[in-house]
Specification:
Blueprint lengths: L16 H19 L10 E5 L5 H9 L4 E6 L2 H13 L6 E4 L12 E7 L9 H10 E12 L5 E3 L3 H16 L10 H7 L3 E13 L4 H15 L3 H8 L3 H13 L7 E12 L4
Parallel strand pairs: 1-2, 1-4, 2-3, 4-5
Antiparallel strand pairs: 5-8, 6-8, 7-8
Bound molecules: S-adenosylmethionine.
The site of S-adenosylmethionine (SAM) has 23 residues, from helix 1, helix 2 and strand 2.
Amino acid sequence: MEAQSNKTENYIHGYTVEEQQRLIEQALYWREKLILRDVNFLPGDRILEIGCGAGAVLGVLGQAFPQLQLAGIDLQASQIAYARQHLENLGLLNVDLQVGNASQLPWTDESFNYIYNIWFLEHISNPEPILQEAYRVLKPGGTIMLNETDYRTILIYPESADYRYLQDALCELLLDSGGNPYIGRRLGLLLQKAGFSRVKNLPWAFHYFQGENSQKLRDFIEYIYAWLAPTISQMIEKLGKDEKRLGSGLEFFRSIPDLQESAASIIVYRASAIKVSY
Ligand SMILES: C[S@@+](CC[C@H](N)C(=O)[O-])C[C@H]1O[C@@H](n2cnc3c(N)ncnc32)[C@H](O)[C@@H]1O
């Protein structure tokens, strides 16, 4: 089995405390709309989040379902240290947190009822070994859930050539860092290939526009801006992109809620499947 790279230096969001706090905010932003949508765990279920980062999503799941047995793994030790503290602060003790590579999970076969992934496979160039590992550690009858976007689906109105330039650069940056900006549309195919059954891959669209929706539009734009703005310097340094055009694309994006007639949207894909026992 080909091992996933252990390198984390190309990871586009980095591992600063500000970024870890942003992950916590991000999980709160998506709590009802996405993370808890259509999930139904039983008391005592064991759930593993692969690529759990700062423990933000484990925190949301653990608070909503206090009788879950939580586990998480991340390649970066500082993420796991932050996660441990964050979950303890929420009163979630005894979470099984491990530093390690998703393509070599440190759990025995058939350990979990659920595997949960979110905003993770977009950073992975070779997801197949990771999904094979997920399959191995899932119990027969267990469920896997993947949540990822497609960076081409972050749309704005009115159109802006400079925003398009920025969006192209973002997709290029993810590819350059070993990720996949289009992973959302591939999730179902990947689960089928990994041997899962009853595969679903639903596109959940979120669309906000000026009017009664204005605050939601503003919140959405600010949420995207919070992770997009810090990646601009990498687009300039690593890809040689035009600083002025990127700056103007970002400024236009942020001004969307202040324009008279404006809107923005994104699609997040939820793929789920079962490991059937034969
Ligand atoms: C954008 S963060 C998402 C964290 C978390 N899922 C959340 O939504 O808050 C992606 C995480 O994946 C981790 N990661 C990347 N490659 C990995 C690998 N091969 N094995 C385990 N973790 C990995 C990174 O270190 C990072 O913490």
